[in-house]
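hi!! sorry for the late reply, been swamped w classes. u asked for the two structures so here they r. pasted raw, havent cleaned anything up. first the sequence of the first protein and right below it the tokens
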Amino acid sequence: MTRQRTAPAAKARLGGAAGLMTLFLLAGCSFFSHSVTWTKSGATEEQSQSDLAQCQERADVQTGHDRDINRDIDAADSSGSAGIDTSPLQNMQSYHDDRRYKSILEGCMAELGYRKVD
């Protein structure tokens, strides 16, 4: 007679494998990431630094607001994830947050007339 795994054990095993795979994917992405330089004709170094700081603050505020909303949603729906490994979802959310931050920052700098120099 063949023994079958129970649903919770199978889910836990799948969650762990997915978590490892996500971790490796994120590590690979950060390995190939590089810093971005911004340029704007006629902008001084001081103006560029000030504009970048302003855009970073805007991105920080917006992504912080997004995280607060997600935390509220998770708190309201915490009963559905009891006993399930949510670390893969948290890793994916962190990756999404990083991409959102970069998107806001890039949009802000473009609005101010800067372009990326890779």
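now the second protein. again sequence first, tokens right under
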Amino acid sequence: MQQIVIDAPAGEVSAELGRRGVAADAKVHVIVEFLDDETLPMATIAEAGKALDWLAAEPELYSDADLVERAA
């Protein structure tokens, strides 16, 4: 297994791989590390990954009536 370390903005990773001779249809394994200590909130990660999309497909399972309000 070959390893390439790329220090580039996320939007430029494909171009950088191409510049280094990696074919566009090559299978790659990617590990992402945030260099600027950027952390994504879990809700953003779940939304981006479509983790809760199944709720819309099965509205009979949960509704707003299931929400519990807690005192702050």
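hope this helps!! also noticed smth abt the second:
The helical segments are 13-19, 42-48, 54-57.
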